[in-house]
Amino acid sequence: MKVAFLGLGVMGYPMAGHLLKAGHEVTVYNRTAGKARKWVEEHGGAMENDPAAASKGAAIVFACVGNDGDSIDVATAALAGMGEGSVYVDHTTTSAACAEEIAGRAAERGVGFVDAPVSGGQAGAEKGALSIMCGGSNADLTTVSPVMDNYAKRIVHIGPVGHGQLCKAVNQICIAGLLQGLSEAVHFGSRAGIDMDRVREAVSGGAAQSWQMENRWATMNRGEFDFGFAVDWMRKDLRIALDEAGRHGASLPVTALVDQFYAEVQESGGRRWDTSSLVSRLNKKPS
Amino acid sequence: MKVAFLGLGVMGYPMAGHLLKAGHEVTVYNRTAGKARKWVEEHGGAMENDPAAASKGAAIVFACVGNDGDSIDVATAALAGMGEGSVYVDHTTTSAACAEEIAGRAAERGVGFVDAPVSGGQAGAEKGALSIMCGGSNADLTTVSPVMDNYAKRIVHIGPVGHGQLCKAVNQICIAGLLQGLSEAVHFGSRAGIDMDRVREAVSGGAAQSWQMENRWATMNRGEFDFGFAVDWMRKDLRIALDEAGRHGASLPVTALVDQFYAEVQESGGRRWDTSSLVSRLNKKPS
Amino acid sequence: MKVAFLGLGVMGYPMAGHLLKAGHEVTVYNRTAGKARKWVEEHGGAMENDPAAASKGAAIVFACVGNDGDSIDVATAALAGMGEGSVYVDHTTTSAACAEEIAGRAAERGVGFVDAPVSGGQAGAEKGALSIMCGGSNADLTTVSPVMDNYAKRIVHIGPVGHGQLCKAVNQICIAGLLQGLSEAVHFGSRAGIDMDRVREAVSGGAAQSWQMENRWATMNRGEFDFGFAVDWMRKDLRIALDEAGRHGASLPVTALVDQFYAEVQESGGRRWDTSSLVSRLNKKPS
Amino acid sequence: MKVAFLGLGVMGYPMAGHLLKAGHEVTVYNRTAGKARKWVEEHGGAMENDPAAASKGAAIVFACVGNDGDSIDVATAALAGMGEGSVYVDHTTTSAACAEEIAGRAAERGVGFVDAPVSGGQAGAEKGALSIMCGGSNADLTTVSPVMDNYAKRIVHIGPVGHGQLCKAVNQICIAGLLQGLSEAVHFGSRAGIDMDRVREAVSGGAAQSWQMENRWATMNRGEFDFGFAVDWMRKDLRIALDEAGRHGASLPVTALVDQFYAEVQESGGRRWDTSSLVSRLNKKPS
Ligand SMILES: NC(=O)C1=CN([C@@H]2O[C@H](COP(=O)(O)OP(=O)(O)OC[C@H]3O[C@@H](n4cnc5c(N)ncnc54)[C@H](OP(=O)(O)O)[C@@H]3O)[C@@H](O)[C@H]2O)C=CC1
Ligand SMILES: NC(=O)C1=CN([C@@H]2O[C@H](COP(=O)(O)OP(=O)(O)OC[C@H]3O[C@@H](n4cnc5c(N)ncnc54)[C@H](OP(=O)(O)O)[C@@H]3O)[C@@H](O)[C@H]2O)C=CC1
Ligand SMILES: NC(=O)C1=CN([C@@H]2O[C@H](COP(=O)(O)OP(=O)(O)OC[C@H]3O[C@@H](n4cnc5c(N)ncnc54)[C@H](OP(=O)(O)O)[C@@H]3O)[C@@H](O)[C@H]2O)C=CC1
């Protein structure tokens, strides 16, 4: 199938690669052209210098860029090149309002739209094992799912346009509270001077268990954060969640609080640290 | 082996049962004698009307009562009946200071001590699948572990006396933040009107995953809390965690906040509800 | 002096009235024309049906509308009618970025700009006793201060354009934490059953004293909130404060938390209640 | 009148001095005898080496020591020396339960009791301008008020025994939220780079005004905390407030949170800093 991929960042670069390896005819576009050139050298396929050119003739156009503004810019440009009956898939984490906005513009041109934020991080993108939460019509989902399958371990159709993004917000809300709880536990344990390896052995089989406990406990205890999902991205996502909450009359006290704790992490140099770096503001040594 | 079990509450009743079924010679004591009678009728074994009498001649005495005060009362009474070389095991969730206090009194009489709080809840106690976090000497652990094995799926020796209780505090700290995050996510999803079964399918395989998500998501979404680990117990445990934090110079902002949210749950009638009832204060309908 | 006043809401209506009473030649504009007609009937002066017409020939144009978007819309329309050397004064509470944006557009037309958010509420506007926090050049301040004096008890020049709005954000941040503290105190006192009139007598002369304690204690204790500065406005202002904080690398944990508590107040029917209604979510009776 | 004063700390030393200056016959006791000697050298009067001896024959015994435990120890010792019809006044900040406990023991000996925590700090004690919040009977209040007047600017009879302490808890709850709000405001302003002297001028006349703003703004902006009411004392008092809240079914989310922020201040070296040092954890420079 002829497809385009717009945005070859940490996530998009390997995702686009999986599509090519699966035999699709892939044209890529990246704002900074160097990355696109590198991608073509590594994988083959074609590149173009603007979204419209890259999207011309594609049955599906995938995008994975930055925030709401970026998403709308790239989509608007791409739609100009897309033909009726094609589908635009946005893997960017954005607001639901942004998804609806792009879907509206796509509809005007007879183009389908699926909001399809992902979880699984860089590792998931590279291994082709992302979870994808989708909003859109059944028809559009039917078109795009088999192609997304090349980098997904799980694709769930949540509901109409925007619901993929709302599902991603749910995901991030869960993580914020959970990571702060875990951070306080790790901080407490370190201050109390107990053997945290044994603690993990004791508690990881029960009601306190979490993916973060299994995957971040050791690094949090060692104060290592130089990997994973960056605090800057997390704050963007929490901002979206808090704004959506405002729209829907939901109250998210701990999410809002943790978002401010992340501000402290950013200020102490952690903009690119993994989200588990929440523990760093607690573990600070007296200066 | 001749053993005693003191406190036949929700947890102790089935735990003592497992010991008898495993062939140990069990004498039970319960403050309210009716429960002890019922236990003996159901399981066989013997009962006594005070802790000292029940503990006389026992190689190991197990207790599972309420809070610090209860724990010290029962232990003090029991130690009067215990012989040199025997071991006292406290399954109650208490402070580390309480464990140290009892260990000291035990030592004066040549009795060993293990603090051995459990997780796994009523179901874990009944199925004999508790996780037990232990503080004490290697020698005492070696004595008591094979017996505890009858109701444990996991026994971890964390460190010296008190470290079992500190480990339990870590467990509860993890849960407090995690459950508030989950509550906010469930609340957000319900207000946003998305299909929460599909959301769970999408998010439960990744970084937001937790035991609570797997085991409480459906009931939280339905507003069912009439089971599980009671809010009153949780507040007792969080109080312990916050006091220990004060002692060790740790700061637990979200734990302290969630503890206050539990106060609101208690006031709205939820003293015996499961800890996942945190979501109820968010989901309240306009009155 | 020939002046215009745009936006005759709760605040603007009496402010514009003070200008007329002071002898200025006032032309008013209000989106909903009925309010402008009522104003002219009551005070005299002139009205126009669009901002540009109202602003034509005015030496100073004052506006007091809703949020950032409203502010930019009204300013853009008004500037089209304003002559070189005139000054636009925005009394709306907006972001500093919004102030800078309007100042930029004004400068292009040779028009001065002052951001001049106010505090003092409806009562302050009616009595002509507002505090005005200004951002702009000395020259522009010199032009507009004598005119604003007609409804001000205090005019402070904080700094360049935007600094008036940042000062207002400081004001609202102070209030959010303070009112939550006061709410918890009132809630605590009512649950503990102590005589809150005597408590106020005892504590209002010392380190716990605040304007809110002096002016809201009695109504908070009685659960009366049908007056004052509305929760909806407060959330708008806290949103601005939190966004500015993000821009400047500041962390506002309690402000963010209280903002979410206000979401609960809104949901329980309090969108138009006074900001002291924070106490209502604590004092809820078990349902 | 023959009186005794037990505890010559920061508060008690000058309070006892005012009594002597007013012509009362004062016997003092202090655990560390050196302070009592110094006091007698400075003021005259008598000293004794234990509370009972100091209290012998006194019509009123005043105490101002540390926490609940200290309070009960000193009171118990003193009561042994007190005669029927005398009154014991406890100026220590304690729990209401502690006040009731001491009142009960006093009653057994025919001794009256007034809980009389103070506010106003060291300066208030030295100037004789404390606010005193009292719990006790009308008769006991009538006896002790004229004597306390020598160091009070305000004496309020809140209610029966314990209500003085509950009133003090209300006072501290107000301050915790208020100071955190003020800290966030000061932190925000410093990051935003606005002129904080002018901001204070603009906001201190309105709804954001507070005693803390008037008396701590300048020092908070300069990062000076080497004076005032110590963080260690504040945490003791907040612990009392949170415990009382638990007893009365009140929820104090921000009080609990701020208490944990104070833990961070303690860890960074601020145990003896003024309570306004909350701002220090926000203003930390990237390390
Ligand atoms: N329930 C759960 O899911 C879990 C509980 N725990 C912990 O286990 C402990 C027990 O919990 P659980 O079994 O649920 O509690 P229950 O309330 O069901 O049982 C408490 C038991 O302790 C006895 N008891 C309490 N105080 C005294 C006292 N002063 N003197 C003598 N006996 C006393 C009670 O006797 P009587 O029958 O006379 O009241 C009863 O047998 C607690 O510390 C709890 O935190 C830990 C993990 C999970
Ligand atoms: N109320 C208070 O106590 C205080 C309010 N403020 C701030 O002052 C501002 C005004 O508040 P208040 O007077 O209470 O608000 P109101 O809602 O009473 O009035 C708002 C005014 O703005 C007009 N308006 C809003 N949006 C637009 C638009 N897009 N185009 C044209 N006109 C518009 C409204 O017109 P229409 O009549 O057609 O709706 C109305 O005249 C707000 O920024 C508020 O935060 C500051 C301090 C205290
Ligand atoms: N400082 C302040 O600004 C304010 C303090 N308070 C409250 O007043 C009380 C006293 O505060 P402050 O004067 O500052 O405290 P200090 O630490 O300066 O003094 C405490 C006094 O109590 C004595 N003391 C403490 N424990 C015992 C004990 N177990 N037996 C005998 N004597 C004891 C100390 O004796 P020794 O000299 O031997 O140590 C000392 O005289 C506290 O409850 C505090 O919360 C209330 C309002 C303001």
TrEMBL record, chains A, B, C, D:
SUPFAM superfamilies: 6-phosphogluconate dehydrogenase C-terminal domain-like, NAD(P)-binding Rossmann-fold domains. The keyword Signal does not apply. Pfam families: NAD_binding_11, NAD_binding_2. The active site is at K168. Keywords: NAD, Oxidoreductase. GO terms for biological process: organic acid catabolic process. One of its GO terms (molecular function) is NADP binding. The keyword Magnesium does not apply. Residues 162-280 form the 3-hydroxyisobutyrate dehydrogenase-like NAD-binding domain. Residues 2-159 form the 6-phosphogluconate dehydrogenase NADP-binding domain. PROSITE patterns: 3_HYDROXYISOBUT_DH (PS00895). InterPro entries: 3-OH-isobutyrate_DH-rel_CS, 6-PGluconate_DH-like_C_sf, 6PGD_dom2, 6PGDH_NADP-bd, HIBADH-like_NADP-bd, HIBADH-related, NAD(P)-bd_dom_sf. Belongs to the HIBADH-related family. This is 3-hydroxyisobutyrate dehydrogenase. It comes from Aquisalinus luteolus. The lineage of its organism: Bacteria, Pseudomonadati, Pseudomonadota, Alphaproteobacteria, Parvularculales.
